Amino acid sequence: MQLRNFGKLDWKVSALGFGCMRLPCATEDRTGPDVIEDEALRMIRHAIDSGVNYVDTAYPYHGGRSETILGNALQGGYRERVKLATKLPVWLVNRPADFDRLLDDQLNRLQTTHIDCYLLHALSESRWHETVLRHKLLKKAEAALADGRIRHLGFSFHDQYESFEEIVNGSDLWSFCQIQYNYMDTENQAGTRGLKLAASKGLGVVIMEPLLGGSLAVPPKDILKSMDDFPVHRSPAEWALQWLWDQPEVSVVLSGMSTMEQVEQNLQFADSSRAGSFGKSEHDLIARVREMYRARTVIPCTGCHYCMPCPNGVDIPANFEYFNYAHLYEDLAGARFREQVFLTADQRASSCIACRECEKLCPQQIPISEWMPKVTALLE
To answer: What string of DSSP letters covers 277-345?
Structure first.
């Protein structure tokens, strides 16, 4: 297993981290509560035995079962061999005291005295201002750092780069952050700018969604052919992972593995990973693949947000992003999952009243009110 720097911290992290959001399940819902626990424990322990030393979970994963299952997996001496990461469900915090209540509940679930890497989960501009700052959660986190319940503080992020920059610069307590990043998300959310900003400040950078929920592992036939024609054979999943590991700013790449086969494959990929291993031909291929994906875009939205705020509360760019996602990656289920998880009922396309105020502001002159019913029909 290759080891990498974790920001300025004095320990090395495995290139591959085990994400416990998509553990093996008895049904097709890879994130549901019906986890096959014996198999999950076998997979997690095999990964640790093979050199993985970073395991990641969160309060809501698998309907609240993920933390408990991971806690069981780390018994028998495995807890001491890893850095354990979990996340505060910020959306459940209504008062400062909720921080301690939730953290103590998580310590019990995980059967541990401390969390090595504790994240404020899924921060955005609104959650940063309306919850973290409003309820003084950084002071609560500082106290938990002081009493040893957590060892390092970070945050995971889903919003625009400007919000990421504000949050990164908003506290000296951060040791690391977690961002959605892959070769299709270089300009989305934190993106490459966010990766480099965090690394420049000495933060460890944890990568989530390296395969966009698995979409990059099963590309359309024309994109797969371009990859297969390259002189060096790599599977689509390996191309995506090696592209990330090529970047020295990346500390650890999380993979939500659902089968032992995926564990074995990812261990093999991680073993051959190196920063700076890609040459011009590899970067050229990824650039071609990226453009081939983008050519499948249906709605020409650039995400400039000139159309926002919508007077009725609809998140227009996000709705278009998820609609396009379904077409780019031929993954309707993934698009619907994102729409359900990241948008409230008011923010969804079905809340559009066709007032057309946004259309006056759109630089691309998109007939937004005409697209919204189509987005609703596809995603809802």
So the answer is: ---HHHHHHHHHHHHHHHTT-SS------TTPSPTT---HHHHHHHHHHHHHTT-HHHHHHHHHHH--G
Residue 171 lies in a domain: yes
Asked if residue 354 and residue 267 are part of one domain, the reply reads: no
Quick one: which of 160, 163, 137 has its CA closest to 150? 137
Q: 286-325: buried (b, 16+ CB within 10 Å) or exposed (e) per residue? A: beebeebbeeeeebebeeeeebeebeeebbbbbbbbbbbb
Q: What is the pTM of this model?
A: 0.88
Beta-sheet strands, E only, within the chain:
3-5, 12-14, 16-19, 54-56, 83-88, 115-123, 150-157, 174-180, 204-208, 252-256
Residue 324: is its pLDDT beyond 80?
yes
Same domain, 82 and 230: yes
77: domain range? 3-285
Same domain, 323 and 244: no
161 shares a domain with 17: yes
Cβ atoms of 338 and 325 within 8 Å: the answer is yes
Are 222 and 324 in the same domain? no
Clarify whether residues 96 and 161 are in a common domain. yes
Statement: residue 111 has pLDDT above 90: yes
Determine the Cα angle at 114 with ends 111 and 116, to 5°: 115
